Amino acid sequence: MRSRQPATANAGLGTFIRAKPPERCVWTPAPDNRRVRFFIHEKVKHRAARALAWVKAFLALYDTSMLGWVRIDLGREYRDRLGRRYRKYWGVYGRCWYPSQTQPTVRISCQVPGPFPADVITRRKPVYRRPDSTWPPEAKQAIGPVLKDSRTGRQWRRVYGITTVRTVDEAVVWIFAHEAFHWLRKTRQIPGRNTEVAADAFADAQLARFRAGAPPQRPDQTGFWFAGQQGELFDPTEWLQPGLATCGGGHGIGPPTP
């Protein structure tokens, strides 16, 4: 579920426009808006038709000029010495590849081998040590070593949660939303920090909407909330205040719809 980021080069497909604060910069697409290619495993087509329709509805909300293809399958198969097929990984996982000199588009690959229900280990808001060197009470529930920023001396513990995906449909929605978050942050179509914590929270929020029978929704639309990098609820009205300019065209995130 971690995204890979090789040396980037947009190869003329668009331009990141830098601006001085307080302006917010957004992705400016190339004139030829690319059609996304889909590579879907036949078993996924048969078992997760509802989730695939949700994925296409999700993509319709955003500019896909930098998205080359989406692959959703059951993962790579291997053979042992006797020729028997097996898979190394199970459950739900995926990758988001950023543009490179040889591949000028973003590519999203999602694997849902199951079996289901399956538990996904998610990353949550870390617990930070107080300035007086004491820990908050919730630090006792945090599993793992104490990490330290060598530059600032700040210490924290990582916090993990569990999201259970009960069906192939839910698995497709969760892992696609997670990897799509990395793509959308890379192209600056949604606010936030491009971290695994934020991507997991975004995926959890989209899965909750899917379970409720609601369509996908952009973070800048009224009523959509997800836990941000620091654990607080993301308020789109705080990210774009009236008067803040967007750079490079009309594909930025505007104020919430009344």
Question: What gap, in angstroms, lies between the N and C termini?
Answer: 35 Å
**Which runs of at least 5 residues are low in confidence (pLDDT < 50)?**
2-33, 229-258
Largest sheet: 4 strands, mixed
Tally of contiguous helical segments: 5
Q: List SSEs in N-to-C order.
A: EEEEHHEEEEEEEEHHHE
Please explain how this structure is put together.
With 258 residues, this protein is α/β, with parallel strands linked by helices. It folds into two domains: 1-115 and 167-217 and 243-250, no CATH class; 118-165, no CATH class. 22% of the residues lie in helices and 26% in strands. It contains five helices and 13 strands. The protein has helices spanning 42-47, 49-59, 168-186, 196-211, 236-239; strands spanning 14-16, 24-25, 27-29, 37-40, 67-73, 78-79, 85-86, 91-97, 106-114, 118-128, 146-148, 155-165, 246-247. The strands form five sheets. It has a four-stranded mixed beta sheet with strand order 4-5-9-8. Helix 2 (49-59) packs parallel to helix 3 and helix 3 (168-186) crosses helix 4. Residues 2-33 and 229-258 have low confidence and may be disordered.
Helices and strands in order:
Layout: E1 14-16, E2 24-25, E3 27-29, E4 37-40, H1 42-47, H2 49-59, E5 67-73, E6 78-79, E7 85-86, E8 91-97, E9 106-114, E10 118-128, E11 146-148, E12 155-165, H3 168-186, H4 196-211, H5 236-239, E13 246-247
Parallel strand pairs: 2-13, 4-5, 5-9
Antiparallel strand pairs: 1-3, 6-7, 8-9, 10-12, 11-12
Helix pairs in contact: 2-3, 3-4
In short:
This protein is of the alpha/beta class. It has helices spanning 42-47, 49-59, 168-186, 196-211, 236-239, and strands at 14-16, 24-25, 27-29, 37-40, 67-73, 78-79, 85-86, 91-97, 106-114, 118-128, 146-148, 155-165, 246-247. It folds into two domains: 1-115 and 167-217 and 243-250, no CATH class; 118-165, no CATH class.
